[in-house]
Write a structure and sequence with these properties.
Layout lengths: L26 H11 L3 E5 L5 H12 L5 E5 L4 E2 L3 E2 L2 H14 L4 E4 L3 H5 L9 E6 L5 H11 L3 E10 L10 H8 L5 E4 L5 E5 L9 H7 L5 H25 L2 E5 L11 E5 L5 E9 L6 E3 L5 E11 L6 E4 L9 E8 L6 E13 L11 E12 L2 H86 L1
Parallel strand pairs: 1-2, 1-6, 2-5, 6-7
Antiparallel strand pairs: 3-4, 7-9, 8-9, 10-11, 10-13, 12-18, 13-17, 14-15, 14-17, 14-18, 16-17
Helix pairs in contact: 1-2
């Protein structure tokens, strides 16, 4: 299709960071786009963990292109992504400084604020990537606001054009905007729309004319990049299988982060004992028992104070429902055991909220884990049924939340009944007191009347 494409050998430094890989499948195309167009100014709106942005930066660096790159994001999250931990920006900033600080700049601000930056004169951006809030109004606002900044012949990327859920408006906006410009759509990895800010016949770059000129079969192009994405994905899975790790997260007020975690490599196929120290949590401790598709059994979970040596909490086999599963973990129905089927690389097990004695700076977590890995063929099968597994996992989580809510409602009802009974008892006592007071008042009234009668008799006699 194209001669000597970078995508055939591109190995991203940053792949599926933080367990989020919605952009992973487009990294080979990003590498080819950078190599073939050689931009001088790249801007990304909406960066999060930086998978797409650092893919651009790595390609710029490896191709030795003279280019400036800017990532714009508040790194606080939005209504669709939820709130980010402050550790996300700290980690992204550290990665940027280590690898790309000479030409890459992070701008922690809103997209509208960045419009007024002197870095972005009209008609200067060669590659603009839109990946912020994906409501229809938000993406339309971002596109129209930044379009004047894009150079003639420049490229605009729009992510999530295949996401049909909630209030995602990218598919609707893509349908509209793709009719106005030369465009090409990828449907894998949540979908990626590619737009050229020019007329198709004005494009001279062979790579772009292949995309927009209609001379190459679009299906062939899509299939090629899907195969490239699969190559990266299976390489990632193989690496994870070779180096499975357990990780324990201790949240602070901003949430879970790599900085407040401890990990340990484990060997699959046999029981392994894990013992790590983590900072005192401000919420539930989280165990990620493995980082690949597998079946996992976790047992003998103990949380203790290293300084005092006393046990703060331990898993009771008779009450194993105290732990909750999330992420890519599905709890298997096995009484007294915590057996998890992980259909991805981010299974999560949450422990109950703990009461930590004052003065402890850290806590120790001990548990045993056994990992049974699956073959790559099973991986492929899982990818086929993954949407169903995700729905099942969400249904299980919703059912668990309903059980918790039901138990809380039952507890509240019991408390209300106790309060009602206490009120009824108080009412009975109050009514008895009223009767006694009335009796006393009647007695006093009768005595007063009797005393008044005697007084009148004494006055008559005198």
């Amino acid at each position: 299709m194209f001669p000597d494409l970078t995508s055939t050998r591109f190995q991203p430094r940053r792949y599926c960071p933080g367990g989020v890989g919605n952009w992973s499948g487009h990294l080979p195309f990003a590498a080819d786009l950078i190599a073939c167009t050689k931009p001088s100014l790249v801007v990304e709106l909406g960066t999060h963990y930086g998978e797409s942005y650092f893919g651009f930066c790595q390609a710029i660096q490896q191709q030795e292109i003279s280019c400036r790159a800017f990532a714009v994001d508040t790194w606080k999250g939005d209504s669709q992504t939820g709130l980010y931990s402050s550790a996300v920006f700290a980690e992204v900033s550290a990665h940027n400084a280590e690898h790309y600080g000479s030409f890459s700049t992070l701008l922690p601000m809103s997209f509208d604020e960045a419009l007024s930056c002197t870095h972005f004169a009209d008609g200067t951006i060669d590659l603009l990537h839109l990946d912020g809030c994906h409501t229809y109004d938000a993406i339309k606002h971002d596109f129209e606001g930044w379009l004047p900044k894009v150079a003639a012949g420049g490229i605009i990327l729009i992510h999530d054009i295949s996401v049909q859920r909630d209030n995602f408006g990218a598919p609707r906006f893509w349908e509209e905007v793709s009719a106005r410009f030369p465009s090409f759509a990828f449907h894998h990895s949540c979908g990626l729309g590619v737009i050229a800010n020019s007329e198709a016949e004005q494009l001279e770059n062979p790579f772009l004319t292949a995309l927009f000129g209609g001379k190459c079969n679009p299906r062939v192009i899509r299939d090629y990049y899907v195969l490239c994405a699969e190559r990266l994905h299976y390489a990632f899975l193989v690496q994870a299988e070779r180096n499975p790790t357990c990780q324990v997260f201790s949240p602070d007020a901003t949430g879970y982060s790599e900085e407040r975690s401890a990990s340990l490599a484990v060997s699959p196929g046999a029981w392994a004992d894990v013992e790590v120290d983590v900072p005192v949590p401000s919420g539930r401790l989280r165990l990620d028992p493995v980082n690949c598709v597998s079946a996992v059994e976790v047992s003998e979970i103990v949380v203790e104070s290293p300084s005092a040596g006393n046990v703060l909490w331990s898993l009771d086999p008779g009450h194993s429902d105290q732990v909750l599963c999330a992420g890519t973990a599905i709890r298997m129905p096995e009484d007294g055991k915590v057996i998890i089927l992980s259909y991805g690389d981010d299974p999560q097990v949450y422990l109950p909220q703990l009461e930590i004695p004052d003065g402890d700076g850290s806590i120790r977590v001990r548990f045993s884990v056994r990992i049974d890995r699956f073959s790559l063929r099973i991986h492929r099968d899982f990818r086929i049924v993954e949407p169903l597994l995700v729905r099942y996992s969400k249904a299980c989580s919703a059912a668990s939340n309903l059980e918790v809510a039901h138990a809380r409602a039952q507890s509240d009802l019991a408390r209300l009944r106790a309060d009602y009974n206490a009120c009824a008892q108080f009412r009975q006592e109050a009514e008895a007191e009223v009767v006694r007071m009335r009796s006393m008042l009647n007695a006093v009234s009768q005595r007063s009347a009797s005393d008044a009668g005697h007084s009148r008799e004494d006055e008559a006699i005198s």
